[in-house]
Design a protein that fits this description.
single chain; alpha/beta; eight-stranded parallel sheet; 42% helix; globular
């Protein structure tokens, strides 16, 4: 079902919010294009971006009010200026944004005011050339856009209370209430729809730019969605909720190497039986939407399709839970029947049991190996050690949930450090690149490193700490962090390990010659 393991490739993990630039947060404009240029110069063929959905509490892209919408905070102000929807005065005289991290509250206030001006300008006739494309977008995406735009407007109207606490008719998504509120909040609904159109317009252009440079985009589809989301509000029958719309059970993971209490995510569990009745139509629609954004989809918490950790909604930690059987391959069969072959990566970290491995392998999906999890026990059987890798593997130095490799190294105990040095044959002074080299040398088809590891940055540059509710996702690249010398160093390693584009072209040419020779010999 998956074609990802047919060639060797490598790439860099960087969420767009962390791109450099003067506007308080990374965006889809010139800074993103410069990063793509750098990737191309470094001979990289993949950019892993994580989810591109809107964020809510905690600013995590894995907790979104919509599994279909784009994060409009990423809109390029320069792009809106070019479209005639902002003036020079709108993007001059900026607030004192920090350059090394995102002040999400400051960005929110600034963008909210600017986006109101964008909508006013559009209604006044500016950017008129965009109107036909906007109308087409609304029509083509109405299956999710109408609910998302109204949900966003209602959320503001009800002072950001979760949707079961709204007036009962609209909380229950009743048809008459929907019509009434769409009329009442018409301007706000149109503004959100416009912003979604502009997001996808800018993102499509950026992704096309990456394709022109030979770079594909790897994105994420978190298995669960947020409770306080348009997805849950519009389709409550697809989730395990009570008669008032409240969660009865929530998702998480049991205690593991990330957290001694496990992780209590709070996401509602799916009602898989209800989803099966319509052929998993919601999952088909969601996969189609993610595939519209990216080229390769990493399924976060893949193991949940085999069995997921279920905790009563009243619990304070994830310790008291149970494994509940998932739908297995039925969801993927439905997706394939509707969409054809979709390039998936299975995030198979955590508590992985034989049924999860059987599901992954039966679907032909590559799994993940994280080198930071490889060391400590010296018996050589740890699956994350490079000699135990298989081609159907995506090898990471670390992920967005790990400390940076430099930070990880600094916190290691002496015994584990010695194991790392003995295994890799290094002295640890260049540990981040030691792991990058190990990942690139692996037989795994894909190797990925967070940009922080290529830069050898410490814990201060960490993206996310699982189980920690605040102060995540704020780190940003310095303006001059990625230079020609670093691109050259990575390009050399990528060439030496045959992960560059020319290596694949050569392999294909050799295969074609071998096939021709066989035909002649026959």
């Amino acid at each position: 079902m998956n074609t990802l393991t047919r060639e060797r490739r490598s790439g860099i993990l960087l969420h767009p919010t962390a791109l450099p630039g003067p506007y308080g947060i990374g965006d889809l404009g010139s800074g993103a294009r410069r990063f793509v240029d750098w990737l191309a110069a470094a001979q990289q063929r993949l950019w892993q971006v994580l989810p591109l959905n809107p964020t809510s509490h905690g600013n995590s892209p894995y907790t979104s009010p919509s599994a279909f919408a784009g994060n409009t905070r990423l809109l390029s102000l320069e792009g809106l200026l070019q479209d005639g929807l902002l003036g020079l005065g709108d993007i001059n005289g900026l607030p004192p944004f920090p350059r090394d991290h995102v002040d999400f509250a400051m960005v929110h206030d600034h963008r909210t005011a600017l986006f109101a001006r964008v909508h006013d300008a559009f209604r006044a006739g500016k950017g008129a050339a965009l109107r036909p494309a906007f109308d087409e977008f609304r029509h083509a995406q109405q299956h999710w856009l109408e609910d998302h735009a109204l949900f966003a407007a209602l959320h503001r109207h009800f002072n950001h209370l979760s949707w079961p606490q709204w007036d009962r008719p609209i909380a229950r998504h009743e048809k008459k209430a929907l019509e009434t509120w769409r009329d009442t909040l018409h301007a706000e609904v149109e503004r959100e729809s416009l912003l979604q159109f502009l997001f996808y317009r800018q993102w499509d252009a950026l992704r096309g730019y990456a394709h022109d440079q030979g770079i594909q985009v790897v994105g994420d589809a978190p298995i669960f969605v947020a409770f306080d989301s348009a997805d849950c509000w519009a389709s409550p029958h697809q989730f395990r909720l009570d008669e008032n719309g409240e969660r009865t059970v929530v998702a998480g993971v049991p205690p593991d190497y990330f957290s001694k209490d496990g992780q209590l995510w709070g996401n509602p569990h799916y009602d898989w039986d209800a989803m099966a009745q319509d052929g998993y139509a919601w999952w088909v629609a969601r996969t189609r939407a993610v595939a519209r954004q990216v080229d390769i989809i990493r399924i976060d918490h893949f193991r949940g399709f085999a069995a997921a950790w279920e905790v009563k909604a009243t619990e304070k930690t994830a310790r008291k839970g149970r494994w509940v059987k998932g739908p297995g391959r039925q969801v993927f069969d439905a997706i394939r029947a509707a969409l054809g072959e979709v390039p998936f990566i299975a995030e198979d970290l955590g508590v992985i049991t034989p049924d999860v491995e059987a599901l992954r392998d039966g679907l032909g999906l590559p799994g993940m190996r994280v080198l930071q999890f490889a060391f400590g026990d010296e018996d050589g059987i740890n699956a994350f050690l490079p000699h135990n890798h298989v081609p159907a593997t995506v090898v990471y130095t670390g992920t967005h949930d790990n400390d940076t490799t430099r930070g990880w190294w600094d916190a290691l105990d002496d015994r584990t450090r010695m194991h790392v040095m003995r295994y890799l044959g290094v002295d640890g002074r260049d540990i981040a690149w030691d792991l990058v080299r190990a990942a690139w040398r692996s037989c795994g088809a894909i190797a990925v490193a967070p940009v922080q590891d290529v830069l050898d940055l410490g814990t201060h540059a960490r993206f996310n700490t699982p189980g920690k509710a605040e102060d995540n996702w704020g780190w940003r690249l310095a303006d001059d962090a990625l230079g020609d010398a670093l691109a050259g160093r990575l390009a050399e390693l990528t060439t030496l390990t045959a992960r560059h584009a020319r290596a694949e072209e050569k392999r294909r040419a050799q295969a074609a010659l071998a096939e021709r020779d066989l035909a002649v010999a026959g």
